[in-house]
């Protein structure tokens, strides 16, 4: 028997109760979130992941990497390089990009 999660919501002024059965998921079906480093999405080399759950169903939506030191250093170095150009970009141009 799997644990159950109680979920409720308001439907036309009435509170609707629902019991959701929580089942383990196959890790093969769960996507992983890639890192965005130096303008590219890359797979992390980590062996340590954080499961991100849908709060309504408790299902795992994705796995987020606990970034390695070398990946973090690469991201920081890329940000330092990008800042050189970004800092000279006008506010109007920044608004259009973002």
Automatic annotation (TrEMBL):
InterPro entries: Ald_DH/histidinol_DH, Ald_DH_N, Aldehyde_DH_dom, MeMal-semiAld_DH. Gene3D superfamilies: Aldehyde Dehydrogenase, Chain A, domain 1. SUPFAM superfamilies: ALDH-like. GO terms for molecular function: methylmalonate-semialdehyde dehydrogenase (acylating, NAD) activity. GO terms for cellular component: mitochondrion. Residues 41-98 form the Aldehyde dehydrogenase domain. GO terms for biological process: L-valine catabolic process; thymine catabolic process. It catalyses: 2-methyl-3-oxopropanoate + NAD(+) + CoA + H2O = propanoyl-CoA + hydrogencarbonate + NADH + H(+); 3-oxopropanoate + NAD(+) + CoA + H2O = hydrogencarbonate + acetyl-CoA + NADH + H(+). Belongs to the aldehyde dehydrogenase family. Probable malonate and methylmalonate semialdehyde dehydrogenase involved in the catabolism of valine, thymine, and compounds catabolized by way of beta-alanine, including uracil and cytidine. PANTHER family: MALONATE-SEMIALDEHYDE DEHYDROGENASE, METHYLMALONATE-SEMIALDEHYDE DEHYDROGENASE [ACYLATING], MITOCHONDRIAL. This is Probable methylmalonate-semialdehyde/malonate-semialdehyde dehydrogenase [acylating], mitochondrial. It comes from Timema californicum.
């Amino acid at each position: 028997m799997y644990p159950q999660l109680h979920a409720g919501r308001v439907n036309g002024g009435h509170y609707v109760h629902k019991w959701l059965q929580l089942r383990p998921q196959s890790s093969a079906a769960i996507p992983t979130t890639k890192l965005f480093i130096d303008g590219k999405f890359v797979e992390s080399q980590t062996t340590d992941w954080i499961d991100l759950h849908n709060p309504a169903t408790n299902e795992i939506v994705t796995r987020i990497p606990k970034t390695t030191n070398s990946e973090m250093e690469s991201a920081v170095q890329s940000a330092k390089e990008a800042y050189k150009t970004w800092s000279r970009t006008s506010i109007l141009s920044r608004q259009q990009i973002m």
